[in-house]
Amino acid sequence: MSPHSALTLLLAAATGLAALQMPCSARASEPLPPWTPAAEQGRALFYGTRPFTQPATVSGAPMPASAVACVQCHGPLGEGSREANVAAPDIRWAAGKTSRLNLANALRDGRDATGRPLHPAMPRYALTHDEVAALDAFWPWLGNAAQPQSGISSNELRLGVALEGIAHADARAQVMAGVQSVLDQTNAAGGVHGRQLRLLPSDRGLPSDVFALVASALLPAQQKLLRDQRLPSIATLDVQARNADPSGWQWPLLPSLEQQARIAMEQLQNAPADCIRWTFDPRGLSISSETQRTPKWPAGTRLCVAAFAPAAEVDSLRSRWREAGITLKQLIELSGMRAKPLEAPELDHRLILFVPLAVADHAERQGQSLWFVLGQAAARTAVEALARSGRNVVPESLLAQARSLTGYAPLPGAPLAFSRSQAHGWQPEPFVSRPPASPASSPFSELRSRKELP
Length: 454
Known about the structure:
This protein has helices spanning 3-14, 37-47, 71-74, 100-109, 129-138, 169-188, 220-223, 257-269, 311-323, 357-366, 370-389, 395-402, and strands spanning 57-58, 61-62, 81-83, 86-88, 156-162, 196-202, 212-214, 233-236, 250-252, 276-280, 302-307, 327-334, 348-353, 429-434. By secondary structure, the chain is α/β, with parallel strands linked by helices. The protein folds into 3 domains: 3-141, no CATH class; 156-255 and 358-419, 3-Layer(aba) Sandwich (Rossmann fold); 272-353 and 430-434, no CATH class. Strands 6-5-7-8-9 form a 5-stranded parallel beta sheet. The longest helix has 20 residues, at 169-188. The radius of gyration is 26 Å and the shape is globular.
């Protein structure tokens, strides 16, 4: 069973949990209980940061662990959701009103408070006694603004920035300055939902006691800690090799190398017909199989090449081809692999940019570094997601709102592409470093040319 099918079944069954919304207990009038370690464990089970001891089943079939967390159907605040035209109910008003026994009967046995069977697609959870107790302890806190959380109080929300993934100290300083400038503007206007935003940078490791990360560039080991710590990383500035998981906790502002390679391959498919098309991809970023060995072409061969390797490796190949009498007619590279455009008038040189050209143009017009402007864009993205989340925000609802930012432009001319299926904010953009001598009807004629990159 696929995760999508599993989610659909869960949602179809979730209406059965409406049976919990019955006046079956006197707990409604009780005050909010104290926050306990059991409530903390129940929250982890609800949000899926801690797996259940035994797999849940539907009609006897085990379900993927990623599909059975309560949040998948009922939402970050218990507000419910809709998938495949099936609605999961809002269970917030039932929180604190449902007895532990009724909760256990619904989740373990699929029966409501009167003993009637719930929908057959309702998952059966083989809950331990401790898991029932943990969920019961967290249940009254679901959707409650008083729920204890890291990095947030009644009048302040703390954002962290970790930049160990950026090598140059000046670039790190520029990013933090860009982020701080946006937070200062936001705070001067009253903050977000009555809270002032405070930035906590970290030179080593992940910052502590923060609600979320912004504009960060994390090391791989740090990325693996985000889910366990319930720490969203919004609008990150690292360039990942592979596409980020839309169900994950890291939402990069920049496109992955895999996305950039895909655009380069599309460009290569439109290369002139009188050249041999070849892909140099020693790190396997593209889907092409022509990546391991360099063929021996005869003198006079005309090549159009998409190269996904550092400039030094590509330039070594260019020298060998030149000595062998092979003409490199077109070269398509990723901008992160080469610091500046090639000085080769005879070559049609193209770069796949990791930021929209509008972002670089904006930096030029403002007289700011690209890293400063990227810090601003990341901070504005995080502020917008927080604003859409409302005052009663949890990390998972912040992630949900990040998915809703499709079309929001943190900088002029640079709208985001975030969605439920797309975890990268910006898409790669082709750029003509050295335009070809071809008619206006060329497939490349719409690409912009510049003398050099900002």
